Amino acid sequence: MTTPSLLKLRVDMKSASPTPENVFSGLLLDRNAEQRDDAAWIAAQLADPRARFVLLGAEGHALAQRDVDALRVILADERSALLPTATPSYLGADDAGPFFSLSAESRDAARIAAELGGDFIDLRSAGTRLQAFEAGLFAYARALSHWQSRTRFCSVCGAPVVVVTAGHRARCTNPDCAIEHFPRVDPAMIVIVSYGDACLLGRQATWPEKRFSRSPASSSPANRSRTPCAAKCSRKRACASATARTTPRSRGRSRPR
Q1: Structurally, how many domains does the chain consist of?
Q2: Rounded distance between C-alpha atoms, residue 74 and residue 77, angstroms
Q3: Looking at the domain assignment, is residue 86 inside a domain?
Q4: Range of 105's domain?
Q5: Which of 14, 77, 83, 86 is the most buried (most CB within 10 A)?
Q6: Span 15-50, pLDDT tens digits
Q7: What is the C-alpha end-to-end distance of the chain, expressed in Å?
Q8: What is the pTM of this model?
């Protein structure tokens, strides 16, 4: 659980410069959504010698280079040797070629990291270590993999599902149902709670020293943006009461879980 602490940050909230762009939103990638159902086209992308693969471990961590703050993507020839039977999910393409994601069990992930001289990093660390493009690529792959790992059975009839559309859709295997499932997107906000020249930040005991976070607030459908913010703050021990007031800088965002 995140423990709140009230930090005195001597910042003029009105004159402060605009918040920098979210590092995870800097992914400029052609996702080619209209091609995902074309098996021949996906096969051609997989056969492209320029193809690169983002490797995720069992906990959703991504393989990164050990001595450089960058992802350690797996190249096409490396993939055929290291994980020949793993099913990739298509992410998209840039000018240098296509990107896919691969998920590996703990034992395989540790073996590959040792062979390639890399280490696995979590998504929060990626926000401070990786460039915006790679951080966004990791977040995209992580969201898709997380949804796939938790969408094993149909929520309507309980039959197993099969992942189709190059990883972006799950179809019920019951022919009498055959409903399709899509990755979930939950409405959420990242908010900052201010009081004069102080703001409320939280941290977990397991985090590195001097790492703090603003408060996330999940919203229900058709809810006002200020309601989840006030509810979140009222549950913090450092807040005796909370009255939310939205400002022009407060924007609702959607994030995959």
Answers
A1: 3
A2: 8
A3: yes
A4: 38-150
A5: 83
A6: 444 445 678 877 889 999 999 999 999 999 999 999
A7: 18
A8: 0.74
